[in-house]
């Protein structure tokens, strides 16, 4: 979590160039003071409220009385299933519905639907891709100023 830009995807470069490491941050970036206040009011931070684990989402945790993260929970598999609407599961579901459809015109419409096309494409071209839904990032106050269109 970057204090200026918020949550960033990790990337790396392999080099023989000698680089100085960034210094350790002087204070924790997360939780943001607004998130601590929200947690005190509703027992969830904005990210936890966006995708609560107790409602099938992927995030949970707690903040102690000092405003520090006491424990946290992130279920990557739940996040992926919520964010990846098209893939092998949607293709299998669509194929079963098409096979079981008795009306030939309706079956033709299902085969030519946007949903079926996207499901086929996702399996064909993106079989190794896993995505996140980004709702936790969208509601995170850290880096919000940098996310605004300029």
Structure description:
There is one protein chain. Strands 1-2 form a two-stranded antiparallel sheet. The longest helix has 13 residues. The radius of gyration is 21 Å and the shape is extended. The protein is mainly alpha-helical. Helix 4 runs antiparallel to helix 5. It has 2 domains: 102 residues, no CATH class; 38 residues.
Which SSEs are present, and which pair or pack?
Elements: H1 33-42, H2 46-50, E1 59-63, E2 69-74, H3 76-83, H4 88-100, H5 104-111, H6 114-125, H7 135-139, H8 144-147
Antiparallel strand pairs: 1-2
Helix pairs in contact: 4-5, 4-6
Fraction of residues in H or I helices: 40-55%
Largest sheet: 2 strands, antiparallel
Number of domains: 2
Alpha carbon gyration radius: 21 Å
- End-to-end C-alpha gap: 22 Å
Mean pLDDT: 87
Oligomer: single chain
Key features?
two-stranded antiparallel sheet; 8 helices; 2 domains; 150 residues; mainly alpha
Provide a quick synopsis of the model.
With 150 residues, this protein is mainly α. The chain has eight helices and two strands, in the order H-H-E-E-H-H-H-H-H-H.
């Amino acid at each position: 979590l970057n204090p200026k830009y918020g949550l960033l995807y990790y990337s790396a470069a392999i080099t023989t160039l000698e680089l100085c490491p960034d210094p350790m941050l002087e204070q924790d970036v997360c939780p943001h003071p607004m998130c601590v206040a929200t947690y005190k009011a509703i027992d969830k931070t904005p990210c936890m409220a966006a995708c609560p684990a107790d409602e099938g989402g992927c995030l949970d945790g707690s903040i102690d009385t000092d405003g520090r993260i006491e424990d946290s929970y992130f279920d990557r598999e739940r996040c992926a299933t919520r964010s990846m609407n098209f893939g092998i599961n949607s293709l299998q579901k669509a194929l079963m519905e098409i096979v079981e459809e008795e009306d030939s015109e309706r079956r033709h419409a299902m085969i030519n639907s946007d949903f079926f096309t996207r499901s086929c494409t996702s399996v064909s071209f993106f079989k190794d891709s896993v995505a996140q839904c980004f709702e936790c990032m969208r509601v995170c106050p850290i880096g919000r100023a940098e996310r605004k269109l300029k």
